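ugh ok fine here u go
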Amino acid sequence: MIKSKKHIARFFVIIISLAMILSFGGGKVYAEPTDANTTLKAAFDAFNACGLVFLEYSITGEGELLVAEKVKLDRENNLKNVLSQDPDTNEWTTMYTDMKEKITYYKDGDKWYKYPTDEEELQGLGKTLSENGVETDLVQGATYAYDGEETIAVTNAHTDEITEVDCYRYLATIPVIIKDDNDYDEGEEDDEEDADEEDPDEEPAEPDLVNIYYFIAKDSGKWVHAETRDGLIIDVDITYPDASNPAVVEEIKAALQIPKEAVKNAVLEEGFVTPVSNNEVVGYKVVYKGKKAYLVVTKAKSAKKVVIKKSVKILGTNYPVLEIGASAFANNKKVQTVVINANLTKIDKKAFYNTPKLKSITIKSKKLKTIGKNAFDTNSKKLTVKLSGNKKYKAKIKKLITKSRAKKAAKKTKLTVK
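structure:
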């Protein structure tokens, strides 16, 4: 549930955060409706410099609520508190993030759970409202213009109080190119065969033009609201606590503290998937058997060589990698070599399905027991599977591999198991 919301929220940060300034600024904030760039830059600088800030936002698509969250930030103590609503059940879940230790905690029923908070989420609604590694600025190529005055109702995410604010409205027209999550920088040049597959005359992607309305309070020059009105409807309210009242500040900071029972008792979230990135080519999902957690390979990015680890450390604890999940490598057009280290007990159905360049799989585990249907139907011309263990074990695995393959795949691919 929570992870899916995070993926939906990526739309929010791609659209909203691109128009923010990264650097922190001080000094006086001016609201000058005739100079949109100066006014917005000053307002964003003031937002970034604020130690305590509240946000309430929602995302609606085709009339359906996709995301509804209330966010409270204590940047001085590196804490983030998110109250997230499930649009299906209308139930609210509170998540606490320690942005320094990079851990997020939440409670489900009587149990506390935790998962590692990656850099994308630490930035998201954190320092600059940016996410996915997007570097925020007043975007080059974008236009910012004064668009009139409007009185809007702003909701305080901490108190739920609604205040009417007289604002200057600014329209930002921003070029946005949304990249697929699977587009990663390989960090290496393609071989000649791969290069032939690329079209050198292909035109670069044309950006979409996204209209965002920013609202700056007349009396203070603070940024208090942003919204989009086309496609995904995104609505964000921003409020600031009274920093001049120490009692109010201390009360808020106390409310944002991570409960001690969470830190003490939280277990790793089942279903959490480690992110695939430039540094980690494989994604691992957390699965529980009883009280013990282990990892399942869920996906691998398009790299020529992929190594599946024996175990992976998550939040200071090593978890064994016991399975390759269904279709984990399916339709991977670049992978040529896969090395599977010890501990593996299962290769699920279609694990290596339709991997036309896959030539070699080395299985170092001597514990493999299950191979799913079509797991080795690679569609490549030749495949060599190298096994560890004694002759009896190798014969057993060879039989499982042969049994798992479709007749058509067996005719197309010359398989050698040794």
